[in-house]
Specification:
Layout (H helix, E strand, L loop, with lengths): L7 H4 L13 H11 L3 E6 L2 E7 L22 E2 L5 H11 L3 E6 L2 E7 H7 L1 H4 L14 E2 L5 E2 L1 H10 L3
Parallel strand pairs: 3-4
Antiparallel strand pairs: 1-2, 4-5, 6-7
Length: 160
């Protein structure tokens, strides 16, 4: 089997670190730092509530609930999805991760970094135009991607 056809369930990060939507930003950031992860699915008694990334809470007060910053319609793929399908969903939706989930719940999370490590050909062109980072990318100039640090430098330099 080609690496691009590998099952997402074989590539995803587990165990998934899911948070209750009522978790405060300070606790999320402590977990992020200690576990070295950036994306957190939010799960409540009804199931998958949303997803939040550390970049989503930039400037938030530590006591605020992460639910205030959550993307309420997280991009999901089933555990049986293939790596190339997950990569295509990430690129199409402009997100850095997909939640691996089905009717039984959340199985894991698959990030750009996971794919870059395991199936590099799928992520070859997915990086910051300036520094090659794969984290927290946003649309940049000329249909490129740019990380927040480089975007701030660009704005500060007065270039378009």
């Amino acid at each position: 089997m080609k690496p691009r056809d590998e099952l997402v369930s074989h590539l995803m990060s587990t165990p998934v670190v899911a948070l209750d939507p009522k978790t405060n930003v300070g606790e999320m950031l402590r977990l992020s730092e200690s576990l070295r992860i950036h994306h957190f699915p939010l799960v409540d008694s009804a199931g998958l509530f949303g997803i939040v990334c550390t970049c989503d809470v930039d400037g938030a007060r530590p006591e605020q609930a992460v639910s205030q910053f959550a993307h309420r319609t997280p991009i999901t793929v089933s555990p049986e999805a293939r790596a190339h399908e997950a990569a295509a969903r990430m690129m199409l939706q402009g997100v850095g991760s997909v939640v691996v989930a089905d009717d039984d719940g959340v199985w894991g999370i698959l990030t750009r970094d996971d794919l870059a490590e395991t199936v590099p050909e799928l992520m070859r062109h997915v990086h910051c135009k300036y520094c090659s980072s794969r984290q927290h990318l946003r649309p940049g100039p000329g249909h490129t991607l740019i990380c927040p640090s480089c975007a701030a430098r660009e704005l500060g330099s007065g270039h378009d």
